[in-house]
Write a structure and sequence with these properties.
6 helices; elongated; mainly alpha; single chain; 3 strands; 126 residues
Length: 126
């Protein structure tokens, strides 16, 4: 193409389907995406994602074990675990002097698992 770079991210022609636009816009107007964005922001942090992945491997882990798994201090692990708990991604339970964390529910497990699988597939195509 004579060295001309074609932008493949935009349409070459104008297409406007009012029915689709109205339907999808109406659905989006019914939803609050802030909590969803917060969830993805929480998991976009590599340390928190590692913690979530570790919690995917076991039903529950104490803060000390999480710290050792991710190679951090207990304070750092505790900070990230608390953040995950506050966003509803993890839950905690105190047992004596130890605090144990687990993923909040199957939806969180599925999100983390699917993200890890997808990442592996993308890396294998590159």
């Amino acid at each position: 193409m004579n060295g001309t770079k074609v932008n493949q991210d935009t349409c070459d022609v104008f297409c406007f389907d009012q029915e689709k636009v109205n339907r999808i816009s109406g659905e989006m107007g019914k939803r609050n995406f802030v909590p969803v964005a917060d969830l993805f922001k929480a998991l976009s942090d590599e340390t928190r994602l590692k913690i979530a992945y570790a919690l995917l491997q076991e039903d529950e882990l104490c803060v000390c074990d999480v710290a050792n798994i991710i190679g951090s201090t207990t304070a750092t692990a505790s900070h990230h675990l608390r953040h995950l708990r506050n966003l509803g991604l993890a839950k905690s339970q105190k047992k004596g002097k130890l605090v144990f964390y687990s993923l909040d529910d199957d939806h969180v497990r599925q999100l983390v698992e699917v993200a890890v699988i997808h990442s592996s597939e993308v890396q294998s195509r590159v």
